[in-house]
Amino acid sequence: MADELAGFTIGVTADRRRDELAAMLERRGARVVLAPALRIVPLADDSELRAATRACLDNPPDVLVANTGIGMRGWLEAAEGWGLAEPLRLVLSRAYIVARGPKARGAIRAAGLHDEWSPASESCEEVITHLKDRGVAGQLVAMQLHGDRQPECTAALEEAGAAVIELPVYRWAPPTDPAPLHRLVDLITGRLVDAVTFTSAPAVEALLRAAGPSADAVLDAFRSDVLAACVGPVTATPLRRHGIPVLAPGRARLGALVRTLIDELPQRAVNVKVAGHLLTLRGHAAVVDGELRPLAPAPMAVLRALAQSPGRVLSRAALLRTLPRGADEHAVEMAVARLRAGLGTPGVIQTVVKRGYRLPVD
Questions:
Q1: Assessment of whether the complete model's pTM goes beyond 0.90
Q2: Which of 66, 96, 132, 311 pairs as cysteine with 104 (C-beta 3.0–4.6 A)?
Q3: pLDDT tens digits, residue range 195-213?
């Protein structure tokens, strides 16, 4: 199939690069649900960042930890506006610079600075271990924050004898419109998406906060039917803490994230030979003899239940349990009728009088 992700529905929780990620997924046939979990906003009052910058100029840091590309660029642009860019670059050029990932490294080098080391895992924990092994007692460490404060990292460095200047360049805020995120929570708990992508650890935590009392149901869905796909190991940390199996590419890039989804999701397709036809269940669509047939949630739920027990007769009562609460046996008959119409192929869904329905497998 040319569209590798045709039939699959994927939630996107990113804000800053959501359109880019959505376009990459849609080009490969996926249906995308946009639901930004957070948005990055500049600090409303930059006096704290300006004070921290002045502290770096007055007492040059021995070590700079650059956590994000957008953060480093934002800091240097702010310094430019204050007329402090050149003095700041001079001070930072004498520091031992750690770039936590490739984007931070790119921002460092674009500023004409030189990074000394980067962690293979792109994790804060590996950075702290490296600095402690190198020795930071009596040194001043400038920590460019990525969103929220990092009290664990700061405390670990201070326990090792370092003094830490925190540089708050931007912060996370709830989405302007929370409705899409709440809708995504409902889709996850209803198993109506096949995967959800995350590009930051705070986005994972924001989704679970938005879920509220449904947070356990969201985690249960991620443990079974819904794939959690993270851009890298740092993003995956909150999910792994909950025992969620996470799909993550070897390199923390959006393109690599999309490629891992292309490799993984089609393997979850179910193939059945029914009444002389090849029937494939791909996410929330059916493929009949190579032709994609998108289906509404209720008909798809019935088809999925029948495909899990091919050849076996399922009663209306059994199929009713696959539909949303409040449905009755008439709703099952309607779902079956819509399923037959959606498949457009006679004989695939067989009625067994007074017993129920089945897939007449070859």
A1: no
A2: 66
A3: 999 998 889 999 999 999 9
